[in-house]
Amino acid sequence: MANDLFSPVTLGAIHLKNRMVMAPLTRNRSGEHGVPQAINVTYYEQRASAGLIITEATPISLMAHGYPALPGIYTDAQIAGWKKITDAVHAKGGKIVIQLWHVGRISHPSLLPNGALPVAPSAIKPAGQAFTYQGLQDYVAPRALEASELPAIVADYAHATKAALAAGFDGVEVHAANGYLLDQFLRDGSNQRIDNYGGSFENRSRLLLEVTKAVIAVAGADKVGVRLSPVNPFNDMKDSNPQALFNYVAKALRPLDLAYLHVVEGGIHGGGEADPFDFVTLRKLYQGAYIANLSYDKARGNAAIASGHADAIAYGVPFIANPDLVARFKADAPLNVPDVTSFYGGSEKGYTDYPFLTA
Ligand code: PHB
After folding, report:
1. Percentage of the chain surpassing pLDDT 90?
2. Whose CA is nearest to atom 10 of ligand 1?
3. 283 lies in a domain?
4. How far is ligand 1, taken at its centre, from the CA of residue 25, in Å?
5. Are 8 and 21 in contact (CB under 8 A)?
6. With a threshold of 0.85, does the pTM exceed it?
7. What's the CA gap between 304 and 148, in Å, rounded?
8. Residue 307, pLDDT above cutoff 80
9. How far, in Å, from the CA of 57 to the mean position of ligand 1?
C-alpha cells in the first residue's frame, strides 16, 4: 500500500507512528519564570496521538523572549516542568521535540532583562506592535548585534539543547522561520550587515549554520530539525530573492544529515501568496526528510506524501481544536471549530477543553 498520513515513518532517530505532526503553536499559558505547569501537561498529553509533537516556540535565554507567558528551556525549574510533559506524552506512546526560539527584534524592552533593547542583525524597526504585559506597544528599533556577541547566542542554543535532552525530549527543532532572530539574519529586509553575517547568501546563512552545528554537536544530527518559512511576510519580513536564498539554505543544510527540514509553505497569518515560490524544487534540492506545513487538510496531506513531496505533514490550528485529530482524520469525522479568541493566553478555555470524539 502506498504511504499515507497514517503510515509510520522514521525521521533521523525519531520514529513516528503516523505522519501527522502537531505544528509548533504559541499559546502563552506557561507558569511563572517560564516553567511549564499542569495545564500544559494536560494539553500536550491530550495530543499524544500525533506522530510527533513539536512544542510551542520556546525561548533559549532571557534575551530570547518576546511575548508574555512563554515557557523557557534554560533553567533547572523549566527542565523539571518540561519533564512532566515529555513523560506524559511518552506514556501515551507519543514523540515530542522542542522548538528552540530566539525572537530577535520581535520583542520589547518591557519583556527583556533590565529593560534591554531587543537585538537583531541590523537596527531596523519592524512595523507593528509587540504583545506585552501592558498591552500592545509599538516595536522599537532593535540594537544591531556585534559579531563578537554571536558566539554567546550560539552557546545559548547549545545550552538549551542540553536542557532539552535533560527534560526528556526526543529531539529539538531550530526555529529559523517566521521573522524571528535566525530568519532576520537570513532575509535581506532585516539584515543589512556589511560583515561576515550580511550580504551574500553564505553570509546571511552563517548564523543559522553555526547554531545548527552547535545544536548537532550536543544532540546528534538525527535528533535535530530546522524550520524555515521562505515567503512568510509575518513580522514585517521580506527578501529580494527568496527562491535563490532558500534554495541555497536547503543545499547548505543537506550535508548536515538532519532528522528533518520543516517548511512553512506560505504566510502563517495570511500573505505570502504574493511571492511565487517553488517548494517542490526546494524539497528536491534538500533531498532529506521533509515536513510540509500550512493549510493542509487530509486530502492534500495524503497527496503530498503519495507524491513524495513530503514525508510528514504538520497541522497547526486543526490540532488546537482537535486533540484527537488523527482519529478524526481516520474516521473522516467532523472537526471542532477553533476559537480564535483563546489562541493566545488564558487558561483551560480553548486550550484543554476541546471535546474528543465519542465512540
Ligand atoms: C505568534 O505568536 O503568532 C507566533 C509565534 C511564533 C511563530 C509564529 C507565530 O513562529
Report:
1. 97
2. 178
3. yes
4. 7
5. no
6. yes
7. 43
8. yes
9. 8
Q: How many domains does the chain have?
A: 1
Nearest atom in ligand 1 to the alpha carbon of residue 269 is 3
Is there a domain that residue 267 lies in?
yes
Please report the pLDDT score of residue 359 as a whole number.
65
- Kindly state whether residue 301 falls inside one of the protein's structural domains: yes
Nearest C-alpha neighbor of 311 from the set 285, 337, 324, 292? 292
HEC secondary structure over the chain: CCCCCCCCEEECCEEECCCEEECCCCCCCCCHHHCCCHHHHHHHHHCCCCCEEEEEEEECCHHHCCCCCCCCCCCHHHHHHHHHHHHHHHHCCCCEEEEEECCCCCCCHHHCHHHCCCEECCCCCCCCEEEECCEEEECCCCEECCHHHHHHHHHHHHHHHHHHHHCCCCEEEEECCCCCHHHHHHCCCCCCCCCCCCCCHHHHHHHHHHHHHHHHHHHCHHHEEEEECCCCCCCCCCCCCHHHHHHHHHHHHHHHCCCEEEEECCCECECCCCCCCCHHHHHHHHCCCEEEECCCCHHHHHHHHHCCCCCEEEECHHHHHCCCHHHHHHHCCCCCCCCHHHCCCCCCCCCCCCCCCCC
Residues 61-77 have a mean pLDDT of: 98
Whether the per-residue pLDDT at 1 is higher than 60: the answer is no
Catalytic (active site) residue 180: yes
> Can you name the residues that pair with 138 across neighbouring β-strands?
129
| Average pLDDT along the chain | 97
Q: Residue 203: which CATH number?
A: 3.20.20.70
- Domain of residue 168: give its range: 9-342
